[in-house]
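I hope you will forgive my troubling you with a question about protein structure. The matter concerns a single protein, recorded as an amino acid sequence and a row of backbone structure tokens. Please examine both parts with care and let me know of anything in them that strikes you as inconsistent. Thank you for your consideration; the sequence and its tokens are set out here:
***
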Amino acid sequence: MIRWMVIAAFALAPAAQAQQRAHGKAESPAVESTKGEPPKRIRSVLLYGDEKCPTPTNSDEIVVCARGGESPYRIPKNLRELPESPTSQAWGRRAELIEEVNRAGLPNSCSPIGSGGQTGCTAQLLRQWAAEQGEKKAAQAKVP
């Protein structure tokens, strides 16, 4: 099977080269150098959407154009604005959250398990008290 593919590729190569030569001459007759020398400048341009290929500025320049897709962004349009969800978080952040949950017994964890668990309870109570005070002030500010 592979042998036939290789034979077909070699058989079709001269025809493809002739077509490329004819196609290249038909598209850019103004670009060919009159002296038979190679061009001094080759400019590669990626085109997006409906953009047109720019014309060469002089006879010593060749402009090579290629289609880059629908937009210059690498992220597909349907994936650019996903809502935040646990599955859209990076695996590193998910691993950090798991470590925080599993801190039971470590210092500042407010857990009855282990020797350092009670040290975080005071800090947790102070954070809760501060949040309640903030809510009270916000409620008082709303009432005229």
Observations:
- The mean pLDDT is 75.
- Helices lie at 2-27, 91-101, 119-142.
